[in-house]
Amino acid sequence: MNLVLIAMILALLIPIYGAWQDDDIWQKMLAFASIATKTSVMILVVSVLRDDWMIGVVGVIILSVGNAGLMLLAQLIKRMNDS
Fold it and tell me: In which domain, by residue range, is 8 found?
């Protein structure tokens, strides 16, 4: 149980390193979207392990809605930099 969570936390470090290395705004936003997706999956795993479905609902909301706002922000920043 704890080994799975530790492996998931280590998997979070990969896109954080990618966002830190690259200066392109799209690569940073994609890395942050990957972090949000992995975090919501971790929330779902914890909710199943704890048998707490209210936490699971929060994970599903983050998984379904969270990345849309991040991609809209990336598009806005890209258009501001282009002009």
Answer: 2-82
